[in-house]
Specification:
The structure holds two protein chains of two kinds.
Chain A: H1 6-20, H2 27-45, H3 50-69, H4 74-108, H5 126-142, H6 151-159, H7 172-179, H8 187-219, H9 227-258, H10 276-282, H11 285-302, H12 308-325, H13 330-349, H14 368-389, H15 393-403, H16 417-436, H17 447-450, H18 453-470
Helix pairs in contact in A: 1-2, 2-6, 3-4, 3-5, 3-6, 4-5, 6-7, 8-9, 8-16, 8-18, 9-14, 9-15, 11-12, 12-13, 13-14, 14-15
Chain B: H1 2-25, E1 35-37, E2 43-45, E3 50-52, E4 59-61, E5 78-83, H2 85-88, H3 98-105, E6 110-115, H4 121-134, E7 139-144, H5 146-150, E8 164-166, E9 171-173, H6 180-188, H7 190-198, H8 203-214, H9 222-235, E10 241-245, H10 251-259, E11 263-266, H11 286-304
Parallel strand pairs in B: 5-6, 5-7, 7-10, 10-11
Antiparallel strand pairs in B: 1-2, 3-4, 8-9
The chains are: A mainly alpha, B alpha/beta.
């Protein structure tokens, strides 16, 4: 049941009416409804995954209480919880990867090892809800939140249906308190949520889904493509991944707002970043801030005696984990390592933590120097996405070797030229819209301040028509697989 | 809350009206003719209907016999053309119908078309029997794909809206008009139909027939063909029939049919540009129909001579 489906529309309307009519003013009952809806939503994808979610939620709920109540043993309970979370991830997501990698390693040194893979179902969204569980326990241990005694709120925080499959990864201190306060119908917030939902749908269905077919068809036939074609496709994949994931995040945040809940922002116009550090502060923000707080900062403190080398080490470990978080594949390890390397010049020059505001000239354009840096960062990111998308490292290398060959100076060839022009136009319009509204959370935010009702409605209608008439074939969300 | 609901209701109403208007003005969905069951329990179109296919300039019209194609009958020189949606050919102008093309290539004969999407092999044979009684054609061309055979057998897959043969009972199972009221609403509210086509809820069901029709199986189930052909040769007169097989039909099937003494023609689209309307629509375009027509006319001329 994905957001842009008929079944979700029905589900959503039912939950909305129950939430605001019979359960109006009944916070606990609203939470029960959200919890039930979340488990239904999660079970709808595959009911076999529900027990794991429920059992892990119960365990972490009690671990939270034990951590708070037993000051002497709080470190033990936290460590136990963190290890348990890591074990969930290792078993469900990475076990076969490690077995296979070790077997390959042994085979390469002449020891014949047979790698039998386990038949394991990877629960959808496991990386997202496990990070939420771990985050909760660490925050309790650090004293930043009190362990909740309200199991329904806690379970709703873990399983909240708009975010369970692909985030954003909310922090407990911002989300659980919202569930414990009264939520009345807030017209402005709901309308804002609807707008954000619509913007997310447009991104996903019109841009990402239309790009998907073209990109996949080229990726299936890499050896017969010129470097120029592959370069264009790589750049378009950057747009696809962004619109697919940020589209999903906007929808999730929009749905959250409709239920009176504020969800963490996940993107902040990342494609206007001027270096890779700035990029990672703006891309998948809920994951990067999670890793910064729980991995990078502790590592940085541990390595502080090593000076810059310590920071480099901490960054590289952090970025490899960012890569590996996406899935059990060496491509993700290389992706993370590559990004870690990109940080080194920034660490050496001392600009890694510097935050400079992007200034524009009187025409609303960035300076030439900033523009050059934006394009450079985008290209570095685009190259990394080739590794990210490829099934194996060698496929990525084949792809990139063609991009860095003389054929990149040839004229690109596409079988469906009209389609490529169409999707490129969509992408351009999208990027320009993002640039013009870069200080906002999303392009259509605060419309009531600028447009009267007639123009607002006209704009919504145009957006809906574009989605319906020009939307591509329905595609699964890329981040669902992570 | 009330304000929000009023606004949403008004917005949905206004957007729907505008959407309906847009879909109608730009003909974004095809007009679909309404069907009924005739006295032979064959599904036909209600006479007098007309409409446009998606973005078409030319109207389709249901003739007085309840079919969409040509209805020229001349005593002793009529050739009937029976088939599924490829013969119904609602997606192309009538000048691209097999009947029109064959008339140009063989002017001495008149052509009568009986085409409707979903016609199975056994229904085509049944229609040929009825047409034999009613218009007594000299030859009857039946256009077939592999899927038409498989869809004919009740025991293989039940399609309650298609005429099928129960092999176990050796009995024809007549089709029913399924969800007539729902379809009437769906086809008349164009925006709803547009959304239904764009975001199909029952994708598998919708496309099943087309998939069977367009895919070539690696291993044919010979019993399907022998069962059907045994039944047909025992219960129908196959002398006037010419089976025209779609390109890429397995040659084993054609050889099998030959053994029953039925005249056959296997169309060939290899070494040619695509016959299809588009990547998504596997039906023949005008070009495809012309190419098919040329091959059929050659074979027919030999037969006539």
């Amino acid at each position: 049941m994905i957001f842009n489906s008929f079944s979700f529309s029905i589900f959503f309307i039912i939950v909305f009416f129950l939430y605001y009519f019979p359960l109006k003013n009944k916070t606990k009952a609203q939470n029960w409804l959200l919890l039930f809806a979340s488990y239904f939503f999660y079970g709808f994808a595959d009911w076999r995954m529900v027990p794991l979610l429920l059992v892990s939620t119960i365990i972490f709920y009690f671990l939270g209480i034990l951590t708070q109540n037993n000051l002497k043993k709080s470190s033990f309970f936290t460590t136990l919880g963190v290890l348990l979370g890591i074990c969930f991830l290792l078993y469900f997501k990475y076990l076969n990867f490690f077995i296979e990698s070790f077997a390959n390693l042994f085979n390469s040194i002449g020891l014949n090892v047979n790698s039998g893979a386990f038949d394991i179902i990877i629960p959808l969204g496991i990386s997202f809800f496990t990070f939420r569980l771990i985050s909760y326990l660490i925050e309790v241990k650090r004293g930043q939140i009190e362990a909740t005694r309200d199991f329904v709120s806690f379970a709703t925080y873990i399983a909240f249906f708009p975010t369970i499959m692909s985030g954003p990864i909310d922090r407990p201190n911002s989300f659980i308190p919202q569930l414990q306060t009264k939520r009345l119908f807030n017209y402005n917030l709901v309308v804002n949520g609807c707008r954000q939902l619509l913007w997310g749908l447009l991104q996903k269905m019109v841009i990402a889904d239309n790009l998907s077919d073209i990109i996949n068809s080229i990726w299936q036939d890499i050896p017969n493509q010129s470097g120029s074609t592959l370069l264009i496709i790589a750049a378009l994949y950057s747009i696809q991944l962004y619109t697919d994931f940020s589209g999903y995040s906007h929808m999730a945040i929009g749905i959250g707002k409709i239920f009176g809940l504020k969800i963490t922002k996940n993107f902040n116009m990342p494609y206007f970043s001027r270096n890779i550090a700035e990029f990672w502060r703006n891309w998948h923000m809920s994951l990067t801030s999670w890793l910064t707080d729980y991995i990078f900062i502790p590592l940085n403190i541990k390595f502080r005696n090593l000076g810059r080398t310590g920071i480099i080490l901490a960054i590289i470990i952090n970025m490899v984990l960012v890569g590996l978080w996406h899935g059990p594949n060496w491509t993700f390890v290389v992706f993370g390592f590559y990004h870690g390397l990109l940080f080194i010049p920034l660490i050496i020059s001392g600009t890694i933590f510097k935050k400079k505001k992007l200034k524009v000239n009187r025409y609303g354009l960035p300076s030439f120097f900033d523009f050059f840096k934006i394009i450079g960062t985008f290209l570095l990111w685009t190259i990394s996405l080739v590794i990210f998308k490829a099934e194996t490292v060698s496929i990525a290398l084949d792809y990139l070797s063609e991009v860095f060959s003389l054929s990149t100076f040839s004229f690109p060839k596409f079988t469906d030229v009209n389609n490529i022009i169409k999707v490129s136009m969509f992408s351009m319009v999208f990027i320009i819209s993002e640039w013009l509204t870069r200080k906002k959370e999303f392009v259509t935010e605060d419309l009531e301040l600028k447009l009267n009702k007639f123009f607002r409605w006209s704009l919504y209608i145009v957006m809906i028509f574009i989605i319906i008439m020009l939307g591509g074939n329905e595609q699964a969300y890329i981040y669902f697989q992570f | 809350m009330i304000r929000f609901l009023i606004n949403v209701t008004l917005f949905v109403m206004f957007t729907s009206l505008l959407g309906e208007l847009t879909v109608r003005v730009f003909k974004l969905v095809p007009d679909i003719p309404e069907r009924y069951l005739d006295r032979h329990k064959i599904q036909k179109f209600k006479q007098g209907q007309s409409g446009y296919y998606t973005r078409a300039n030319e109207k389709w019209n249901v003739n007085k016999y309840g079919w969409l194609g040509l209805d020229n009958i001349e005593k002793g020189s009529t050739i009937s053309i029976i088939g599924d949606s490829f013969i119904e050919n609602i997606m192309n102008p009538i000048s691209c119908n097999q009947g029109s093309i064959l008339k140009q290539l063989i002017p001495d004969y008149s052509f009568f078309e009986a085409g409707r999407s979903g016609i199975t092999f056994i229904e085509a044979i049944e229609i040929s029997r009825i047409l034999d009684d009613e218009i007594n054609p000299k030859y009857q061309l039946i256009y077939l794909g592999e899927g038409d055979f498989y869809e004919s057998i009740y025991e293989k897959n039940i399609y309650s809206d298609r005429l099928q043969l129960s092999i176990a009972e050796q009995k024809i199972i007549y089709a029913k008009i399924k969800s007539a009221k729902f379809k009437k609403i769906l086809y008349n509210i164009k925006l709803l139909y547009f959304l239904y086509l764009k975001y199909p809820i029952f994708v598998e069901k919708q496309n099943k027939g087309e998939v069977l029709e367009s895919t070539k199986s690696d291993n044919i189930d010979a019993s399907v063909f022998t069962d059907l052909l045994d039944y047909s040769s025992n219960n129908y007169n196959l002398n006037k029939l010419i089976f025209v097989f779609h390109p890429n039909t397995d040659e084993q099937i054609v050889e099998l049919v030959d053994k029953y003494g039925v005249k056959t023609l296997l169309l060939n689209s290899s070494n040619d540009k695509s016959w299809e309307v588009s990547k998504k629509d596997k039906h023949w375009s005008c070009y495809g129909n012309n190419q098919a027509g040329k091959q059929v006319s050659k074979a027919l001329k030999k037969l006539v001579e």
